[in-house]
Structure formats: structure tokens, C-alpha cells
Amino acid sequence: ITGGGRGLGYAMAKKFISEGAEVLIAGRNEDTLALKAAELECAYLKLDVQNVDEIAPFLKKADEMLGGIDVLVNNAGISLHEGNIRNVSQQQFDTQINTNLRGSYFMAQQFIELFETTKRENGNILFVSSERGFYVDDLPYGITKAAMNSLVQGLANRVINCGIRVNAVAPGVTTSDMTGYK
Fold it and tell me: What is the pTM of this model?
């Protein structure tokens, strides 16, 4: 579960573990991951999804640690709450595109490659989108989630015959430290 050290990712990890799944959480902050992994009694690996070069080695290591991966949860995401297009810098735009869309895209690509080269069956990729992806938007966050929704539909069509299901959940504003609601 990318972004598994806090927010929705942490809540999903907790629920999956309670249902008997073996879970590995990933994120950028190793201190947070170590603390949350200890609480959850699960594995963790540091990963910044913005750095695409880290993804293949990360998946290989996670696959080894778990004795095989059959589910990928693309949860890592960020919203910088700029208000409107006039307030968006190139850096803010790039950070959100690279985290929310580019990182998830290449995580899925590498998961599919791992899945197919090891000839596995019954894989799952779950993307965490947002209700914002169903509305027109001028902010990078909404744009990335709309693109993600398109990706989910296209990818689901492409890999279902390979034994991989692709789905998304699209929650609304969620209580977390990122949204400022607790």
C-alpha cells in the first residue's frame, strides 16, 4: 500500500490486516513507516513514488519480503489546496502530477510486468482516486484524479484477460492530517 503510513493508506492497511492479509506499507517518511508498521505488525519499505527509478527495485524487494505480491494499492497522493489556477506554481503542478498520476501509472506498469513475468493469476490493482476526478477542475489534484479515472478504465480493459483486475475507489474529503480535518 503506497502512502500506507498515514491517512487512508494506514486505515486500509489496518483493515486488510484485520481480514487476514499480509501487508507491506510504503511511503517517503521512514520514521513514520517504522512506527506505523510496528503498530500494525506489518512490513514496510521506504519509497517515493515520484522517483520512478525506485519502483522496479521496490516491487522486487516487496515481492521477496511478502513471498509474492498479488495486490497493489496505489494510494499515495497529495493535494496542495491552491484555491484556483492563479495560485498554482510549476513546482506544485509537477509535484502533484508526479505523485498522484505518474507514480501510480508506473507502479501499475511494473506490477503488471512482475505479475506477467512470474506467470501469476488473480492479481489486483486498486487505485485511490477522488470524487474530484468526476468534476471539471482547474487544479492539479482534480486533473490528476480525472486522468486516473481514465487510466483505471483503460487499464482494466487491457489487463483483465491477463488475470489482473483493476479498480478504483473515489472517496470525498477524508479526515486526515493532509486535509487538516481530524
Answer: 0.91
